[in-house]
Every structure is written in C-alpha cells, then in structure tokens.
Amino acid sequence: MHATVVRYRGVEAMVASIEDVARRAGVSIATVSRALRGLPDVATATRDRVLAAAAELDYVASPFAARLASGRTTTVGLVVPFVNRWFFSEVIATVENALRRENFDLLLYNLGDPSGRDRFFDVMPMRKRVDGVIVASLVLDDAEFAALEDLDLPVGLLGIERRGTLSAGIDDIAAACDAVTYLTSLGHRRVGLIGGDTDDPMRFTPPLHRRTGYHRALAAVGVEPDPALEQLGFFTVEGGIEAAQRLLAVPEPPTALFAESDEMAYGALRAIHDRGLRVPEDISVVGFDDQPFSDLMDLTTVRQPVAEQALDITTRLLNLIADSDGGVARDPSVTLPTELVVRNSTRAPGDGPGGSA
C-alpha cells in the first residue's frame, strides 16, 4: 500500500489514496471514480469490489478531486460594486445561504472602486474557478459583458437586464414614480430629490432609474424639473445629510424630499432636525428600500424584496448550471413587485420652509 502521509498539527497519519483502492480492487482509477460516484456504467460485481476495497482501506474521497473529475467547481462567483451598503450585504447573505443549501460555495468579488472594476474585467480572476457568475447592480458596457461571455459559463444579472440573459430585479423607474406620485397626491409640487450620482464611474443602476421615475411623476402633474431641487451624492447617511443641507438652503426650499435610498433618507432626517424643522409638519420625507430601521424611524418608503431577488436569481442560475446541455433559460427576466409603505414621515404641505406647495 502506497498511502499518502498527512501531517496535521504535528501528528502524522497514513491516508489511503484512490490509487490504493484501484490496486486493491484490480481496476483502473477511472473505474474507482465512477463506482464511488454511483455512475451507471459500472458492473455490479465491479462496483461491489471497489466499495469493499475502499472500506478495507478506510478510503475517504476528496471532494476537491471529485470536483475536478466532474469538471465542476461547485462554486458560484458573485460580483458586487460595494460590500458595505445594506442592499449588497443582504444580497451576499441570501446568495451564500442559497448556495450552501445546495452544497455550493460562494466566491465574492468586491470591486470597490473604478480601478478595481477595470482590473476585474481585464483579468477575470474567476476564470476556471466557478461554475456560474452573478453580477449585482452594475451597468455593464459591451466590453465587460463580452468578458463575462468569454468565460462560457451561466451568467445571472441582479438589478439589471440584458436581452437573453438570466436576470432578476425590480422596476426602479415605476417604484420611484409611485413614491413621488404619492407626494404629489398629497399636494406637494416642490419635491426635492436626494439621489445617487448618475455620473458615478462605478455605474450601478438604481440612481439613473429612480431619477427617471422622479421626473416622470412630476411631469404627470405638469411640474418642470428644477435643477436646484436635485442634489446628488453617495448612497450613504452622510450623502443624505449633505444633499438635504443643500436643498434646505435654496431660496425656495422643497416641501417634500424623495431620497433614492433609506440611508440617504436617514441623513435627510438628521439634517432637517439639525435645522430645527419637523417631519412631517414642516417637510415630508420618503425613502427607498424599507431597511429594518425604517420602521423605527417611522419613514414612508418603498419596500423592495431584496432577499427574494437574490434568491430568485441564485435558484435559477443553479438550475441552469445543473442543465448538462447548458440549455437556454426560460423566462430569463423576472421583475418582482415593490410596495409603498406609508408611515408618519409624510403629510400634505403646510406652512414649512417651502410654503404651501
């Protein structure tokens, strides 16, 4: 027996190899592999002999070796622009849990900044390391998508769509339009926007789409966009504070604010409080996401099903990976519903900083 010697924490042990099993059973290594994996093209007598040899030698198959033999890594790559934002942390947790239930591993790629993004798509470090890829909320240009296609692997898109490609998300335009339409239905006409920077070189999708929905809702009641009422920044509490401070300082401040994320809305609430104003008596605020703290903050907001989106795209990607023919996905694009959750941060305009409307 030519077993492998393994040292772990100073202790040596003899571990039987697949070659030892093949030698004991009098068959090839390939036959041992097929027999242990339960494949049908092995005679019953041969399979019994292999199993008996493996038992006698206390042979334990290497999961990594089995993955190599099958041509699978049982790993899925997840590409996100940031890991320190609520949306993406929820996505990561959901995808990882869904993969674990199917005995898959997660390989996470956090791009972080434009240079990290460029480096990722230039090098494609996941090559030959994953069975499929999920990309979350990144606007992919043709060169980046071509780099993904060159992997020749199933691809799932979360929060973005591309014709013929597996995707799951929400209708950001319609959801934002619903939120601002609610404000206009209360009588607000000077509605400020606290939005993500649409010129952000990381190019992730929500800012552009939610800003479009904001414009659509105002147009529906005959309100022309006012650049002074559109303040952009990062999708963070700090970004919300800074944008709200600028909005409250304009000569004719808004009577309501629509923030493109709950974190930005939290920042707006802080800026409003610091200015000695009240929500909703002086100014109304609507957010987007319905994060856990939004209920405690009594924030009117758009609820989006983050976990459901992540679970949907992961499940369908795994189904595509399991399709031995690499078949074309049916109904590749799935749009999940959103809901406007009305709490106590909104009311009809009063005598606050923006006047009656």
Automatic annotation (TrEMBL):
Keywords: DNA-binding, Transcription, Transcription regulation. The keyword Transcription regulation applies. It comes from Jatrophihabitans endophyticus. Residues 16-70 form the HTH lacI-type domain. One of its GO terms (molecular function) is transcription cis-regulatory region binding. PROSITE patterns: HTH_LACI_1 (PS00356), HTH_LACI_2 (PS50932). This is Transcriptional regulator, LacI family.
